[in-house]
Amino acid sequence: MTFEYATSHRRASRIPPVPGTPYFIEKDMGDRAHLFTDLFTVYAGGEQTENTFNFFTCEGPKGDTIPAHLHADTYEVFFVTDGAVRLFVEDTAGEQYEKLLTSGDFGFVPKNCPHAYRIERHGSRIVGVAAGPGGTFERFFEKLGTPVDSYGLPERPYVPEREKFATVPTQYDVRFLPGHQWRTS
């Protein structure tokens, strides 16, 4: 049996809106949103974990590097289950790192470190976990992107209007860094 809940984020979700409720979600049936060329699926968020962590996946085609950004209060994990993803990270001293992650590889981004990624193979999938003292950011995907009910990648990239980017940092620990340059390849 699958339950659906009304939440403050969507009219129907399989994720209960309050902590302390056990639940199960079948493959790919979490809360989905399109952002840029990718499909993000949230399985657990701040509401379920008392803002201690989130759990989501990102799938996408081979494409461009997503915009550089940082999380002032949140640590982020990248675990690649399928395909290949290039992770770009800059530490707080300004040193930049670049690593191609393939199936089974793990990347860790400390809080306050600019980062971005680029999917290098069609059909790649990242499992993401983020945690930090300031809460979680997973609902950012729906706020900046567009919620979807169906499974699958966007037919066309979903690029939000420029002014929408400014609304994100105050509510979700995501600060975009326009003009940030990666000195790595």
UniProtKB/TrEMBL annotation:
Signal sequence range: none
Protein name: Cupin type-2 domain-containing protein
InterPro entries, alphabetized: Cupin_2, QDO-like, RmlC-like_jellyroll, RmlC_Cupin_sf
Domain of life (superkingdom): Bacteria
Species per Swiss-Prot/TrEMBL record: Streptomyces phaeofaciens
Start and end residues of each Cupin type-2 domain: 61-119
